[in-house]
Design brief:
Strand content: 5-15%
Shape: elongated
Radius of gyration: 14 Å
Strand order of the largest sheet: 2-1-3
Bound molecules: zinc ion
Number of helices: 2
Number of strands: 3
Structural class: alpha+beta
Distance between the termini: 25 Å
Order of helices and strands: EEHEH
Largest sheet: 3 strands, antiparallel
Number of domains: 1
Helix content: 10-25%
Length: 102
């Protein structure tokens, strides 16, 4: 099950489960759209992959056992383990290559 992480790893903005601006990579590294577009340039600083919008988990239990209340969002905040300079240098090496070719 996808871990709905509570914040942007880069700017620490809150990204609650219904946030339409949350972006994730295939490892669930989570950032806001603004950081993905303007700082990361669609290069995950942790794995080098691209990002997609994070799906919204429904609040309502439309199928038995599946809802945000039953499977709540994560609470552990995560933060970048790289400096912004390191992130920028890494992004430059990959941003011109589409994610599907990395
Ligand atoms: Zn951010
Ligand atoms: Zn990643």
């Amino acid at each position: 099950m996808l871990e709905l992480r509570p914040n942007c790893e880069c700017c620490d903005k809150d990204l609650p489960p219904a946030a339409t601006e949350a972006r994730i990579c295939s490892y669930e590294c989570t950032f806001c759209a603004d950081c993905v577009d303007n700082i990361l340039h669609n290069v995950c600083p942790n794995c080098g992959g691209g990002f997609v919008p994070r799906p919204i988990r429904p609040v309502g239990e439309y199928r038995q056992g599946d809802s945000l209340a039953i499977s709540p969002a994560g609470t552990k905040r995560r933060h970048l383990r790289f400096t912004l300079d390191e992130v920028a240098a890494f992004s430059v090496t990959l941003r011109e290559t589409p994610p599907e070719q990395r």
